[in-house]
Design a protein that fits this description.
By secondary structure, this protein is an all-alpha fold. It has one domain. The chain has two helices and no strands. The two termini are 23 Å apart.
Length: 84
Amino acid sequence: MKISEIERETLTGPAAVGVAVGIFAALCTVAFNSDYGGAALPECRKVGGVMLSFFAGFLLAFVPFGVAPVLLARFTSRTSNKTL
């Protein structure tokens, strides 16, 4: 499916906010690991935790405020076209 200009504009804002939330979550993970026993964890596990927290923070903002409105608009436009 192609993304229209309006959908692209709808997705841009939540994507930017999602990146900011993801960076904040990743920084919180780094701070938590440095204060509470992060030295006991191997480096790959620390990096994995930071990546997971960034991805989760991004999805937390992007899915409900970006993807959901676009999908809802597509669904309602299809159902309204079928009833005509």
